[in-house]
């Protein structure tokens, strides 16, 4: 397929149709909705606003689209999902994270279905798929980020039917509007045994605190504090000791699936840079007439091509059932660094305008800078790659 900044998928008619319909929804409905309600990427979002997007996205067939048909989705391949995720952030829509169900929705729980009991599917996971409930995933702690085994949140058995959680989780995305959390905790009295639990956030002994606002300005994170929080044994997800497998297994795939979102944001920065270079006149000619500007745009496009090619190749291997642990780390490493370089060039091309707080290019720059750290730092990815290959 020839490279184009706005990709087409003529070799996959189903995907091309989905992409075209998604673009039509984003430009024809979602962006006007955000403008009419003054919603920006840094707005504090309420549940009714999010539910509006969930409902409309579900009506259009996008919410949970990657799930298998028996769970209400269309069984998208990872390659197809990557294509849609790129389109979402390339649109510049502030609520793009809620269209497919990335933030608190079906994409959070899809990989967990195989661990769930019938009770857990009926009570928790399927309502998320239907847009009736929202969830967050909580594994990180103040001193347990990349080194997740340093977590201190504990789960203590109390008889045969209850566990008691104590601890403090941080950086839980979607916590401000979630109904329940998937919490990974250390089993009390064990050094290397971790389990996962489904925790209703209105359970006595559980508090949701306002989280730190990241440099992107998005108000999407919260802290979860557990103080003698009693959880029914029926809410144990999987088996005792499977917590890290559930948590880290999800993280590995997420590292790949974050990449197309970064590519979309960088593509948006490229689009804005081209438009600005055409309209901005300096010394009697548009910026785009300057060879130095053309070279920057060429470098930016080349970075996008390399990142997209890499991600789609890894996604295709995942579709074939192959283990992509190394490739996922490589993709996240390269994509996060390359897309940040694109954003940095976009700021440079916009000059003082690109440094102005609230300018879209400035916001993209801040957002992409974060992803050299979140969901795995550049250094952690290099460690993982080297450990696997050497």
Automatic annotation (TrEMBL):
Keywords annotated in UniProt: FAD, Flavoprotein, Oxidoreductase
Residues in Acyl-CoA dehydrogenase/oxidase C-terminal domain copies: 241-389
Domain named Acyl-CoA dehydrogenase/oxidase N-terminal: residues: 16-132
Keyword Flavoprotein on entry: yes
Pfam families according to UniProt: Acyl-CoA_dh_1, Acyl-CoA_dh_M, Acyl-CoA_dh_N
Residue ranges of every copy of the Acyl-CoA oxidase/dehydrogenase middle domain listed in the record: 136-227
CC cofactor: FAD
InterPro entries: Acyl-CoA_dehydrogenase (IPR050741), Acyl-CoA_Oxase/DH_mid-dom (IPR006091), Acyl-CoA_Oxase/DH_mid-dom_sf (IPR046373), AcylCo_DH-like_C (IPR036250), AcylCo_DH/oxidase_C (IPR009075), AcylCoA_DH/ox_N (IPR013786), AcylCoA_DH/ox_N_sf (IPR037069), AcylCoA_DH/oxidase_NM_dom_sf (IPR009100)
Domain of life: Bacteria
Sequence similarity: Belongs to the acyl-CoA dehydrogenase family.
Protein name: Acyl-CoA dehydrogenase family protein
Record organism: Streptomyces albiaxialis
């Amino acid at each position: 397929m020839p490279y184009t900044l706005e990709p087409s998928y003529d070799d996959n008619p189903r995907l091309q149709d989905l992409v075209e319909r998604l673009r039509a929804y984003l430009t024809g409905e979602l962006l006007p909705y955000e403008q009419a309600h003054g919603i920006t990427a840094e707005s504090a979002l309420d549940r009714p606003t999010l539910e509006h997007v969930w409902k409309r996205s579900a009506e259009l067939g996008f919410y949970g689209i990657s799930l298998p048909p028996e769970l209400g989705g269309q069984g998208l391949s990872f390659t197809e999902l990557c294509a849609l995720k790129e389109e979402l952030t390339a649109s510049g829509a502030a609520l793009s994270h809620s269209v497919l169900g990335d933030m608190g929705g079906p994409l959070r729980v899809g990989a967990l279905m195989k661990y769930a009991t019938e009770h857990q599917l009926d009570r928790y996971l399927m309502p998320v798929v239907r847009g009736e409930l929202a969830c967050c995933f909580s594994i990180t702690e103040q001193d347990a980020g990349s080194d997740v085994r340093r977590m201190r949140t504990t789960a203590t058995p109390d008889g045969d039917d209850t566990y008691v959680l104590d601890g403090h989780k941080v950086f839980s995305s979607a916590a401000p509007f979630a109904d329940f959390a998937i919490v990974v905790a250390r089993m009390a009295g064990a050094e290397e045994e971790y389990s996962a639990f489904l925790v209703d956030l209105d359970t006595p002994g559980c508090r949701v605190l306002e989280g730190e606002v990241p440099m992107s300005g998005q108000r999407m994170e919260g802290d979860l504090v557990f103080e003698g929080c009693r959880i029914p044994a029926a809410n144990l997800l999987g088996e005792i000791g499977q917590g890290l497998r559930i948590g880290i297994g999800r993280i590995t795939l997420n590292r790949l699936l974050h990449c197309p979102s970064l590519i979309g944001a960088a593509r948006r920065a490229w689009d804005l840079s081209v438009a600005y270079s055409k309209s901005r006149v300096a010394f009697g000619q548009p910026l785009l007439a300057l060879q130095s500007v053309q070279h920057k745009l060429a470098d930016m496009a080349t970075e996008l091509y390399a990142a997209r090619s890499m991600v789609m190749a890894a996604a295709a291997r995942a579709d074939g059932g192959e283990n992509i642990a190394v490739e996922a780390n490589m993709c996240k490493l390269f994509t996060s660094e390359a897309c940040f370089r694109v954003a940095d060039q976009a700021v440079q091309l916009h000059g003082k305008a690109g440094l102005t707080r609230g300018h879209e290019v400035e916001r993209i720059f801040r957002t992409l800078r974060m992803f050299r750290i979140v969901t795995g730092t550049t250094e952690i990815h290099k460690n993982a790659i080297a450990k696997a290959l050497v």
